[in-house]
Amino acid sequence: MRINPVYQKELKTSVRSFRTAFILLGYNGILALFGLFAFYVTFEYDSRYGGTVDYSAILRIYAIITAAEFALVLFTVPALTAASISSEREKQTLEILLTTKLTPFQIILGKLASSISLIILLAFSSLPVLAIVFTIGGVTLKDFTEFMLLIVSTAIFIGSIGIFFSTLFKKTTSATVSTYGVLMVLGLGTLAILWAIRIIVEIKTNQLAAGAIYKPDPDIGNWILVLLINPAVTCLSMIEDQIGTGSRLTDFFSNFGTISMSIQRHWFFISIFLQLVISVILLGCSAKLLNPLQERFCKKKRRR
Fold this sequence. Notes:
- The protein is built from 14 helices and no strands.
- By secondary structure, it is mostly helical.
- α3 (about 55-80) packs antiparallel against α6, α3 (about 55-80) packs parallel to α8 (about 140-170) and α3 (about 55-80) runs antiparallel to α10.
């Protein structure tokens, strides 16, 4: 099977460095200590001083570990991908890369794969720590598979945004700031927009129902579907389904009105599918921007 040459080159460079080994050792060491401490507190301390063992605490520890790894993906992937193409421009090696037999889309895919490989490696290497919960019960192999699907899909989604801005801008600083800015919009901006719409709808509802005894709750309609592109809500939906506290997500959605139960029940998979579709579109746009023939055509069109 032919491996993407860009990915192969970047992977060899990163894997042979001491930095990668140190990150793996430190990351998994901290997670292992955290998991062993939680294991001790649950089974030794509680049973000795409390008289009972709180098995639900194990699920809370699992939720904290998965949320921490997810946060690592959100804050690390932009820094890795935003410099993938712009750094080649700054080192003046992009033109040499474009003269090879690789298509612009293959270059983009190679850069994306090499940038998120470390994140995926960290996620896979942390599975033994998460397996502590698996040995006790409450979390199944299906839950682990969904967690890995979340990490990979989020890394691709955020990475495609970073690749797009890295191709669009010539400077790494501009690409990095823009990527983190979009990430903030996806995470906090979508929530702010929904709350603003809810306040407007609530004001109009109160005006229409002035003097009435019963005032209906504000309903913003299908605007709540904007949260499908919010990675944090996707992670929350997975954790809520796995640890059996899905009522919190339902209560959160009820603040904005009613939502179809079928969409809410399959929120995790629908949001992942939508984010992957957006990723493919962004990667296609990045390849188009990277195409030197397309750039020449745009310059000629501007001159005319």
